[in-house]
Design brief:
Radius of gyration: 23 Å
Order of helices and strands: HEEH
Number of strands: 2
Distance between the termini: 86 Å
Strand order of the largest sheet: 1-2
Strand content: 25-35%
């Protein structure tokens, strides 16, 4: 009784894109550029790629018309130099 190996499942570009938009992808990177062991520049990079429904469900993006909700701002900040109260 001999068995033939099954071909590996191949995912097309459309399948990969569908999965990416459905589940999303988040990339976080911290980069420090230094010269002679002296840190000069620090970068904190964060990127999220997903479909609009996925981003809305995770709270990464605000509904259209809700400015600042995705950044965690409950109310808009007052303008600098404007008297409050």
């Amino acid at each position: 009784m001999s068995s033939t190996p099954l071909p590996a499942p191949s995912a097309s570009l459309v399948d990969l894109l569908d999965r990416l938009l459905d589940r999303g992808l988040v990339v976080n990177a911290d980069v420090v550029i230094s010269l002679a062991d002296v840190p000069l520049i620090g970068l904190n990079l964060r990127a999220a790629l997903a479909g609009i429904e996925t981003m809305l469900s995770y709270g990464v993006m605000a509904q259209p018309g809700e400015e600042g909700a995705a950044r965690g701002l409950e109310t808009p900040h007052p303008q600098a130099g404007t008297p409050s109260g």
